[in-house]
Structure formats: structure tokens, C-alpha cells
Design a protein that fits this description.
- With 202 residues, the protein is an alpha/beta fold.
- It has one domain: Dihydrofolate Reductase, subunit A.
- 24% of the residues lie in helices and 24% in strands.
- It is built from 5 helices and 8 strands, in the order E-H-E-H-H-E-E-H-E-H-E-E-E.
- The protein has an 8-stranded mixed β-sheet.
- Helix 1 packs parallel to helix 3.
Length: 202
């Protein structure tokens, strides 16, 4: 099973609090809701197509709780591929603190997460998607468990907040598989991991 991360980021790499003013105020973050004014029409269709490909979802605890409290409680709108995917496909949560998930078809991975993810990836086909879940994405990246990265980059510099990649961490070469411009200046890039980068020696 291919593991794909799907992340909405600002031009300066911020992924925190994209959905609303009070979505995630950790660290005194005060600029939430920066993505929603730009996200509609073709961008929504593009993301919906990505969700439709998923055979299962993997979340960190915080993102899981945000999704479970929204997508997991809303009535079926009848025309949302995102709602349908999230409410019909299996969900896995990497957490040592979540003990009683309320969202249907949720499994908590609390012991050896690397082994559990390895078992999912060992399935012969399908796609395991990670949406948001910045801390988990960085851990998966550092442990070489990511196969494909999808970035939706928004034309805004947020100027504060948690970034997708920290100042120090693992390096990786990427092959660009697809790139497209969406309305409102959003760009979508699809990358596959391609080993370590080459560095100039002189």
C-alpha cells in the first residue's frame, strides 16, 4: 500500500490552523483560517479526487480529533467525495493517549507505530493517506515510510506557526510527478521520494 501525505501549506511552509481561527492555537498562534478564503471550486475538486483514491487514512491524534469533530459528525451532504471517503474507509490514529475513539471504523495504533504502518504498507495494493498531522508526517518522513508527497501551496505568507518541515531534519531528493496551477493562486505539486539529494562538492 502506497503511503501518501497530503498537506496544505503557505508559501513560508506553515500548515498550522489553516481551517479556522480557533482550529489550532498552540504556541500562541493567532493567524488561523488562512486557507479557506482561497479554497473552492477547482481546488476542492482536486482534493476530492485525492480523497476518492484513499483505501485507508492515517492520522495523528490532534488532526484526528479535528476531523472526527467535523467530518465525523456532519450528516451526509450527498455530494461530497471527502465526506464519503472519510466516513466509509478505515481510519488509523497514531496515539498513546487516545483510548476511546468515537468515529466509526477507527483503530488506534498505540504500540509500535512503525511496525503497524509497515504492515499496512506491506499490503499489495491501495493507498494509505495522511492528511494534516504535521508531527506524524515528519516522523514518517524521518523513518522513510513516505512514498508520495502532495503539497497544495497557497499564495500567502502566514509569518508564524508550525511549518511542515522544521529547521533541522532528514533530507530527501524528490521527483516531481505532477504540477498544476489552480484558481486563486493555489498550486498543487505531487512528488515521489527519490533517495538522498546530491550536493555540490566544490
Amino acid at each position: 500500500m502506497k503511503l501518501t501525505t497530503v498537506t496544505n501549506v503557505s508559501v513560508d511552509g506553515v500548515m498550522q490552523g489553516l481551517g479556522g481561527a480557533d482550529e489550532d492555537r498552540r504556541g500562541g498562534f493567532e493567524r488561523g483560517g488562512w486557507a479557506l478564503p482561497l479554497f473552492h471550486d477547482e481546488a476542492e475538486t482536486f482534493l476530492g479526487q485525492i480523497y476518492q483514491r484513499a483505501d485507508a487514512f492515517l492520522f495523528g491524534r490532534r488532526t484526528y480529533e479535528i476531523f472526527a469533530g467535523s467530518w465525523g459528525t456532519w450528516a451526509d451532504p450527498g455530494n461530497s467525495p471527502i465526506w464519503t471517503a472519510l466516513n466509509t474507509q478505515p481510519k488509523y490514529v497514531a496515539s498513546t493517549t487516545l483510548t476511546d475513539p468515537q468515529w466509526t471504523d477507527t483503530t488506534v495504533l498505540s504500540a509500535d507505530v512503525a511496525a503497524a504502518v509497515g504492515e499496512l504498507k506491506a499490503k499489495p495494493e491501495g493507498e494509505l493517506q495522511v492528511h494534516g498531522s504535521g508531527r506524524l508526517v515528519r516522523w514518517l518522513f524521518d523513518n522513510h515510510l513516505v512514498d508520495e508527497i502532495i503539497l497544495l501551496t497557497y499564495p500567502v505568507v502566514v509569518g508564524q506557526g508550525t511549518r511542515l518541515f522544521p529547521d533541522a531534519g532528514s533530507d530527501a531528493a524528490l521527483d516531481l510527478v505532477e504540477s498544476r496551477a489552480l484558481p486563486n493562486g493555489i498550486t498543487a505539486q505531487v512528488y515521489r521520494l527519490a533517495g538522498r539529494p546530491q550536493y555540490a562538492t566544490d
